[in-house]
Amino acid sequence: MAALETAPAQAMTEGVSTRSHLIYFSSSSENTKRFVQKLGVDAARIPLHAKDAPLLALEPFVLVLPTYGGTNGEGSVPKQVIRFLNNPQNRELIRGVIGAGNTNFAENYCMAGDIIATKCRVPLLYRFELMGTPEDVDRVNQGLEKFWTRLSQIQK
Ligand SMILES: Cc1cc2nc3c(=O)[nH]c(=O)nc-3n(C[C@H](O)[C@H](O)[C@H](O)COP(=O)(O)O)c2cc1C
């Protein structure tokens, strides 16, 4: 599903680039991947393993990420996402965040989404649990459409 292309010239040895407007991280349990697949839109996945070629965004994107919390929410943002956002170009192009999690984690529910929204100064657009419900899928699809339309009007 991901429209991945080999990065041109200089970035060739450094990673894989994408023009997808939805970028997500999902661990080996793949709940988030299943949610994103249900959206039926083009999306790119942040690599799981350190040995994998890093992902480079070429277009503005919304990030979908699950929370993997430690004590007091520390370490909530998966290290793969930190690595991805440590690239200045990726950080420059993020426009919004959607958080995934599990309500069993109470006050730490979807905390990684809040952390990224604050750090990158972008809106937290939505939260959903595990692989999301059909209602989540509808709301995110409609919300993303409105979000990108509004953003393109502001940036005219
Ligand atoms: C070790 C561990 C820690 C977790 N910590 C949190 C947490 O702090 N807050 C939260 O909302 N969900 C937490 N979760 C739930 C995951 O975010 C949730 O299962 C998510 O759907 C995983 O997505 P993935 O399968 O795409 O990686 C945790 C799950 C695990 C296994």
Structural topology:
Blueprint: E1 4-6, E2 16-18, E3 22-24, H1 31-39, E4 44-45, E5 55-57, E6 61-66, H2 79-85, H3 88-93, E7 94-101, H4 111-120, E8 124-129, H5 134-154
Parallel strand pairs: 2-5, 3-4, 3-6, 6-7, 7-8
Antiparallel strand pairs: 1-2
Characterize the structure shown.
This protein is an alpha/beta fold and 156 residues long. It has one domain: Rossmann fold, CATH 3.40.50.360. The chain has helices at 31-39, 79-85, 88-93, 111-120, 134-154, and strands at residues 4-6, 16-18, 22-24, 44-45, 55-57, 61-66, 94-101, 124-129. The strands form 2 sheets. Strands 4-3-6-7-8 form a 5-stranded parallel beta sheet, sandwiched between helices. The longest helix is centred in the C-terminal third of the chain and has 21 residues, at 134-154. Residues 7-13 have low confidence and may be disordered. The structure holds flavin mononucleotide (FMN).
